[in-house]
Amino acid sequence: MRGRRRRRLRSRLANCHARCQESCCPGGPVTEPVARPDAAQRAENVTRVAAIDCGTNSVRLLLADIGDGRLTDIERRMEIVRLGQGVDRTGMLAPEALERTFAAMRGYAKLIDAHGAEKVRVVATSATRDARNQAEFVNGVVEIFGVVPEVISGDEEAQLSFVGATRDLVELRPARPYLVVDIGGGSTEFVLGTSSVEAARSIDIGCVRMTERHLRDGDPERRGTDPAAIGPQGAPTPEQVADAVADIDAQLAAVREVVPVDQARTLVGLAGSVTTVAGMALDLPEYDPARIHLSRITAAQVHEVTRRLLRSTHDERAAIGVMHPGRVDVIGAGALILDRIMREYGFGAVVVSEHDILDGIAWSLV
């Protein structure tokens, strides 16, 4: 990540902006190998990669060694940065949201250097796709990592999620085809497939977007000046929940037009809303990825957890052992999306995966 490399990439970035607004690098990731002191110590068939997923709610890093068809974690990091703050309403990435994101990324850049990653790919999803000022995000990422980030389409996001989630399902051997559902902050991806993607659709419902659109006044930390606008002790009102349900259900009906969800035999759920619901259903005292990964949560458990979250106050949600502080205000919406998916599509259970688009990004580098 030196000056000459940055200048070369800035030139490429200028050309990229002129060619495309939707995807900053349609030809694939910029992944120039970087010579590192410890590279020679690894086996010749092993590549150390760094994958960064910048979503609406969080920015995540996976450092891993990939070789012989296996991915071995070196580091997994996640920071709640709420990059998508207000994007549904304004169509712009807020300056404070950008700075939170860049601060987290600077820490990740240090880890990437320390661990000697040979290839780096940065992917941005829903919030950046929707923002008119995405160039500010792109320029900041180039300054930090020295690579051009890709603002990928919803379809590509769905495919990366499918690859990341399904490689671990071999040992579990669930019935196929799978319906992989990745509930993000700004969008949710639906992918049907067995060994590869057969149909996919991305829709604009996510835990942050639904909270800001329908449920934000139910949170005592985010409400306006009118106390009548919130439910008892800060919980969402029944009217707010009903509006959110109507919005979600309309989008789920649109998914059916593209994805034959009735063909799926196993529902696979990804991302923080799903894993948090799973942790609550398993009654874990604290977040435990090993216990959550590949757990099977019944529809009845999801319905009960969702009811509990939508009736809870901010402080009650914050006190839940598995709850990340950055999810407290949006977890009700995330759980509601999962709940409606299972009700509308008739799934009796969901297999929960800790591996998702981040792993798909890593696999794409080899």
UniProtKB/TrEMBL annotation:
Top-rank lineage group of the source organism: Bacteria
Gene3D superfamilies membership: 3.30.420.40, Exopolyphosphatase. Domain 2
Ppx/GppA phosphatase N-terminal domain: residues covered: 64-361
Pfam families named among the record's database cross-references: Ppx-GppA (PF02541)
Region called Disordered, residue ranges: 213-238
Transmembrane regions: none
Annotated Basic and acidic residues bias: 213-225
Name of the protein: Ppx/GppA family phosphatase
